[in-house]
Hints:
7-stranded mixed sheet
Amino acid sequence: MRQHLSHADSAPRVDPSARARDWSEIQERMLVPLYEAVYERLDVGPATRLLGLRCGSGLALLMAASRGAAVTGVDPASPERLALARARLLPDAPPGRADGAGTGGCGTRARTAAKLVAGPPADAVGTEPAGYTLVTVFEPIGSLAGDSEGLGDLLADALPLAGRGAAVVLAGWGPPERCATSSVLRMAAKLADPLGAARAWRPARRDDLEEVAGRAGLKPDGSGRVACPFGYADLDSAVRGLLSTGLFDAAIAATDAKQVDKELTEALHPHRRPDGTVWMPNVFRYLIARVP
Length: 292
């Protein structure tokens, strides 16, 4: 009989730097259609001052910057991803500071900056915020129990930096029947079952995004759905990409990394095409809300 360890006593045994590289090189691009749809709908361009929360390794910020937007990103949970974002956005910046990334001056007040990024970003300029016109949280919620926890506090710190009427974009997984990856996530939930509800997969709910917006005092102002298929060159890259999301961490803590790798590979076989590539159609949802 396999001896299961509690989530409190056993953290996932992963290399954070390797995980961040896999996210940046393999997985992050799967959400490009989502970024593009939001930026097109909101006419992101030179007049946009964007603050990206949980910005990961910065691909969404880079796409906004290519449209002329001034961007700033923060990701308190993953300094490894944020370091990659800084390398993308500020290739000439000195190494060693990974608490904020951006191409425009964020002008953060000290109190809020301390909560958001553990200090003002190295590239911050000015003493008073001009007001962000767009705040994004592109990391999808609605797939793990409690995955919106902490988002309320992050929004509470960020919203004072946004101007009245600024758009706030939240993203989440679509209905399970529209997301082929749901079958793979169910496998992870079975492995993580000894942990109970601790970060285990659960089906996305229709009002997940609206509930987060409501708790933050935001006013919904439209939503949309975007097809974001997950496509990989082979099974190995699919496994690495999916593990980089963190959605399998509870399964790793409950069993071990090798077991999860094995069962994830098996779960992906139905999605493997004759040429060896892996293809999983998915739909993601976004909500646009406004700062009152």
